[in-house]
Design a protein that fits this description.
five-stranded antiparallel sheet, alpha+beta, elongated, single chain, 15% helix, 31% strand
Length: 194
């Protein structure tokens, strides 16, 4: 008798090796450049947006110096052209004294302030004056810095921070120009010299 089994014999199982991962466009190594591009684009957008916001949406702050003039000289209550300047720049005609929440709000009580609208902002501007400099008043009411000569109508002979008692700080022969915000007194005299 034979001991062989009559059961059908199954062929041995074939083991298929798992293929190694090959680099495709989806692999992390090829996506690194894409990450750098995305980060770079985001950085440009954020920085550009910040600069735009500063220059277009409220880039003018209290204390800043500006060149300011009405867009239409016949309508000084209308919009003004405002551009930022360094306070020492002779084109800086005004200094921002206050930012108003509403266009109907008043400017500070003491001083020569010009309520000005520029786009959506309303601000109070004061003349940008410096001790030792000479000025003339222009057609639009702004003080314009000029070279000091014997014909100069106004020279700022002294500037005092704060609001001391009236008549106590300016030299004899000069008059006071007082501002409550920022608290300051300018002593205006006539240029004496060549």
């Amino acid at each position: 008798m034979s001991t062989e089994s009559t059961d059908p014999v199954e062929p041995p199982a074939v083991v298929t090796p798992v293929p190694e991962e090959s680099e495709t466009d989806e692999s992390p190594q090829n996506n690194n450049w894409l990450k750098f591009v995305i980060v770079g684009v985001l950085a440009i957008v954020l920085v550009g947006g910040g600069v735009w916001a500063l220059t277009s949406l409220g880039g003018t702050n209290v204390g800043d110096c500006v060149s300011a003039s009405p867009k239409d000289v016949d309508k000084p209550d209308g919009d003004w052209n405002i551009s930022s300047k360094g306070c020492g720049d002779s084109a800086a005609t005004h200094r921002v004294a206050a930012m108003l929440k509403n266009a109907e709000d008043p400017c500070p009580a003491e001083g020569i302030y010009e309520p000005v609208k520029s786009g959506s902002e309303t601000m109070c501007l004061m003349p940008n004056l410096a001790e030792g400099k000479c000025y003339t008043s222009s057609d639009d009411g702004a003080f314009k810095q000029e070279n000091c000569t014997t014909e100069s109508p106004v020279k700022i002979v002294k500037k005092v921070d704060g609001l001391p008692e009236e008549g106590t700080v300016c030299p004899e022969g000069s008059s006071e120009l007082r501002f409550s915000e920022p608290a300051s007194v300018y002593c205006m005299g006539v240029h004496e010299g060549s």
